[in-house]
Amino acid sequence: MNVKTLAISGIIAALYTAITLAILPFGFTNIQFRISEMFNHLVVFNPRYIFGIVVGVFVSNLLLSELGPIDLVFGVGQSIIALSLTILFCRYVSNTMARMVFNTFIFTTTMFLIAWELNIVLHLPFLLTWLYVAIGEFAVMAIGIPVMKALNKRLNFARLI
Question: pTM of this prediction?
Answer without folding.
Answer: 0.94
